[in-house]
Amino acid sequence: MATTASATKTDLKNLGADVVIGYQKQAYETVLHDYDVVIDTVGGETLDKSLRVLKPGVNVISITGPPGPTFARKIGAIPVVRPAMAALSYWIRRRAR
Predict the structure, then answer these.
(1) CA–CA separation, 10 vs 79, rounded Å?
(2) How many Å apart are CA 74 and CA 53, to the nearest integer?
(3) Domain ranges of the chain
(4) What is the spatial distance between Cα 94 and Cα 64, in angstroms, rounded to a whole number?
(5) pTM (2 decimals)?
(6) How many CA atoms lie within 13 A of 93 on its CB side?
(7) What Å distances lie between residue 83 and 47, 67, 89, CA to CA?
(8) Which of 41, 34, 53, 46 is nearest to 92 (CA)?
(9) Fewer CB within a 10 Å sphere, N or C end of the chain?
């Protein structure tokens, strides 16, 4: 397991991280690779960079990214909302492919 942290919080190995990257000094997307899952809590450019550390065919979990059409169907969103969710998440779904 790997994580990123600020320079003052890099003592995360006590919590189970094998690799701790100080994101202010090191670009994690150039160091990490072939991970099965990424949990993104920042979004934006960080979410885009997170796609680079994943194995092909696996998923990224983002609590900040826009919901996609699959989520819209699962929650039973009304038909007019589904295309809006698809449009909002289009760029990241395309990059993920």
Answers:
(1) 46
(2) 28
(3) 66-97
(4) 17
(5) 0.68
(6) 12
(7) 22, 11, 10
(8) 46
(9) C
Tokens of 13: 């190995």
Q: How far is CA 78 from CA 67, 73, 88, in A?
A: 14, 9, 16
How is residue 46 written in tokens? 């960080």
Structural contact between residues 62 and 93, judged by C-beta atoms closer than 8 angstroms: no
Q: Which tokens is 81 given?
A: 């909302």
B/e letters for 28-63, b = 16+ CB within 10 Å, e = fewer, are beeebeeeeebebeeeeebbebbeebbeeeeebebe
Q: Under a CB-based contact definition with an 8 Å cutoff, are residues 21 and 28 in contact?
A: yes
Q: If phi over 0 gives left and psi between -120 and 50 gives alpha, with beta otherwise, what is residue 43?
A: left
